[in-house]
Write a structure and sequence with these properties.
Largest sheet: 2 strands, antiparallel
Strand content: under 5%
Structural class: mainly alpha
Number of helices: 5
Strand order of the largest sheet: 1-2
Distance between the termini: 44 Å
Shape: elongated
Number of strands: 2
Order of helices and strands: HHHEHEH
């Protein structure tokens, strides 16, 4: 009985060491995977950065938009990230540290706005037959 107990204890210790090693390997693998950029579709032309993007299509009259929206000549529109940053709810630096380039963390009213927009569009899509799914993560 003693030898069986010793083997069981030894097996438990080996399992603990193996689980610890597996956790280290998974952590390293996740860090490597997180460092990979998103894969582009094969139809996307090669380029050094987004300045070399090609316009594939365009709709609407950009020059007519300010008058249509009633903007005065003094009005200067801002990018959405500038508006969110001015509201104190946009933090790209912390998001880059967590997830990599081109991600942002939202807080306060900006986070609430994003959630409200998502809810609105989910409700709209559901009213047209979309079935929402929440898979296990």
């Amino acid at each position: 009985i003693q030898s069986v107990k010793a083997k069981a204890s030894e097996a438990g210790d080996e399992a603990s060491r193996t689980e610890e090693r597996l956790a280290q390997i998974e952590s390293k693998m996740n860090a490597l995977l997180a460092s990979l950029p998103n894969l582009l579709d094969d139809v996307v032309p090669d380029g050094d950065d987004d300045s070399q993007n090609q316009r594939v299509s365009q709709w609407g009259d950009v020059d007519a938009l300010p008058a249509r929206l009633g903007w005065t000549p003094a009005f200067q529109p801002l990018w959405h990230d500038d508006v969110a940053a001015n509201l104190g709810g946009w933090n790209s630096e912390s998001a880059v540290a967590m997830s990599g380039a081109r991600f942002v963390s939202l807080t306060g009213p900006v986070a609430r706005l994003e959630r409200a927009i998502s809810s609105y569009f989910l409700d709209l899509a559901s009213s047209k037959g979309y079935v929402e799914v929440s898979p296990p993560l």
